[in-house]
Task: inverse folding
């Protein structure tokens, strides 16, 4: 891999890490902190159960996020950071349909949502859980309008067939 490509990968991962693993959790923490003052409703009263559920969701989320990034890099020969049709890291050269992409077309998004839900449960914030669930339709619209259109342009019929077989967000067994 040439130096420029390596730098773009590093930049892409740095941007993704900053947005999805620093900024968004900070927003979640901010919302949870201030919403507890207004709406003190929690979700799981037992701290041990709440922490266990949070850890399980966090591990599932991290597995999907790491697994999908590795698959994009190793199989797709590209990176995940592409927003509003602007590519920071190199775009994938091959459509990835193996690994976590066998079960969901968006394993990174699924993983991130699991991590955010884990954090919301850990903070015991009903407001944040509702906020995360309410954001899912917006996320789906974004995915359909930007990422899936780009994938269809880049990979054509191969992507159309893939999208008919594999769930958009939730990991499910593929349709035949």
Result:
């Amino acid at each position: 891999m040439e130096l420029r490509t390596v730098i773009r990968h590093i930049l892409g991962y740095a941007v993704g890490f900053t947005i999805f693993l620093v900024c968004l959790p900070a927003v979640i923490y901010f919302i949870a902190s201030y919403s507890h003052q207004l709406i003190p409703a929690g979700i799981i009263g037992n701290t041990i159960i709440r922490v266990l559920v949070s850890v399980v969701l966090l591990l599932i989320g991290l597995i999907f996020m790491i697994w999908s990034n590795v698959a994009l890099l190793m199989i797709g020969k590209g990176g995940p950071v592409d927003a509003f049709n602007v590519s920071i890291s190199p775009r994938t050269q091959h459509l990835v349909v193996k690994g976590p992409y066998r079960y969901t077309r968006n394993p990174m998004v699924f993983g991130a949502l699991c991590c955010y839900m884990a954090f919301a449960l850990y903070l015991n914030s009903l407001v944040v859980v509702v906020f995360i669930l309410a954001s899912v339709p917006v996320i789906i619209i974004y995915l359909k309008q930007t990422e899936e259109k780009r994938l269809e342009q880049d990979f054509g019929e191969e992507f159309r067939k893939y999208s008919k077989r594999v769930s958009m967000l939730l990991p499910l067994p593929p349709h035949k």
The helical segments are 3-38, 47-74, 107-122, 126-165. The radius of gyration is 17 Å.
